[in-house]
Amino acid sequence: MVKRFDPSLLPPSPNLSFEEKLWKAGLKHIAGIDEAGRGALAGPVAAAAVILPPKASIQETLDGLHDSKQLSPVKRTAWADNIRTQALAWGIGFATHVEIDLWGIIPATRLAARRAMENFDFTAEHLLLDYLFLPDCDIPQTSLVKGDARSLSIAAASVLAKTARDALLVRLESEYPGYRFSAHKGYGTPQHLAALHQLGPSPVHRMSFAPIKNQIVPRSGVVKKISPQSTQSAQRT
């Protein structure tokens, strides 16, 4: 269960306080997990899982790492390379727009997280997650409010998830150039909504999300263009 958290208690940057408690308890393979793209209108949701080496010096090695939302694209890319080099194990998983429409965004996000862990060569002993819980996972886990701002492992996962998903959306622009996916990464920006108004949804849009479901594909089955002034657009997470 996720406990309430006082934002004033946030550390200046993510640290190893949660990891070190688990390391001292004898657990060495602690996986931080985070997602990217949960609130987007198009494309998959991505999740990453990162196991950092169980040593306090990794804090200094990754000094300056913050959650992905606080980093520029250039810094995120540089950090992603560093994280992959320093991690004991890391993995990235996706759940497609089809799976999101079929099962809902939370189950799809959980699916992406499980797929990320499938890339490990060994099983994690404990999971640290950012406001998420995996009910079908037997591994002990801790769900943290603002986990990407508190746990270094989760912050590392947030960077890998974000950079992997952004790269995929850039590639999708070559298939669907009118939507400018490389600019907004599928989120409901005015630019994106204007493209939807002009072109209608692409094959990679999430048809179950309200801005598209309610305004483009009403229950009558008659296609209706979305308004670029829509106030129902999903917000960047």
Would you spell out the secondary-structure blueprint of this structure?
Layout (H helix, E strand, L loop, with lengths): L16 H8 L5 E7 L8 E7 L6 H4 L11 H14 L2 E7 L1 H7 L1 H13 L8 E5 L10 E4 L7 H24 L5 H4 L5 H10 L10 H4 L24
Parallel strand pairs: 1-4, 4-5
Antiparallel strand pairs: 1-2, 2-3
Helix pairs in contact: 3-6, 4-5
Can you tell me about this structure?
This protein is an alpha/beta fold and 237 residues long. It has a domain at 14-172: Nucleotidyltransferase, domain 5 (2-Layer Sandwich), CATH 3.30.420. 37% of the residues lie in helices and 13% in strands. It has nine helices and five strands. The chain has helices at 17-24, 58-61, 73-86, 97-103, 105-117, 152-175, 181-184, 190-199, 210-213, and strands at 30-36, 45-51, 89-95, 126-130, 141-144. It has a five-stranded mixed beta sheet. Helix 3 (73-86) crosses helix 6 and helix 4 (97-103) packs across helix 5 (105-117).
